[in-house]
Amino acid sequence: MLTGGQSTNLLLIPLYTVMSINAEREVLICYNDRMAYWYKIGLLVLNDEGTKFLVCEKDKNDITSDYIMPGGQMDEPTVQECLKNEIKDELNCAVDFDTLEYIGEFSDVAAGQPGNEISIELYQGKLIGEPKPSHEVKQVHWIGKEDFENPRVSPVIRNKIIPHLVDQGILD
């Protein structure tokens, strides 16, 4: 323990290094020079019964056509601004920010990039308007807990998000 007047030789190692930014302005980060890492903000949108949630399917020419959470790379100064822009771009609707609630952070292998990892900071909220595919999203789907074995569902949703939602009673 350091107290006033003491000194020590500390080696400061950066937590991460920005490796690249792709055409969608997604930032590829390498943590401690180990694994490429994508950090995204996601929105959990449940159906009225709480049995299904909304996922996006991008074009098969994109990095992946696996089902992924709506949302995207945190390029804006706040989570709200990020979700506002990403949900408008992907689903052509708005987020009801009065309903926004933090769910958790989930990490796993990135969809379509088995050598990379993704971490999603997930929020639950309601949409204003009817979700429709827009820009880079080809289709939207509603999936439930039975989809944890569906190979089209991204690893982070299958392995981390669905089990958490079921365990917490968020998804029936």
Structure description:
It is a single chain. With 172 residues, the chain is of the alpha+beta class. It is 15% helix and 42% strand. The chain contains two helices and nine strands. The chain has helices at 79-91, 155-167, and strands spanning 16-21, 27-31, 35-44, 53-58, 67-68, 71-73, 94-110, 113-128, 137-143. Strands 1, 2, 3, 6, 7 and 8 form a six-stranded mixed β-sheet that branches. A three-stranded antiparallel β-sheet has the order 5-4-9, with no helix packed on it. The longest helix is centred in the middle third of the chain and has 13 residues, at 79-91. The N and C termini lie far apart (48 Å). Mean pLDDT is 83; it is low at 1-21 and 29-34.
Number of strands: 9
Radius of gyration: 18 Å
Order of helices and strands, N to C? EEEEEEHEEEH
**Assembly classification:** single chain
Determine the strand fraction and express it as a percent band: 35-45%
Classification by helices and strands: alpha+beta
Can you tell me the residue ranges where pLDDT is under 50 for at least 5 consecutive residues? 1-21, 29-34
Shape: globular
Compute the number of helices. 2
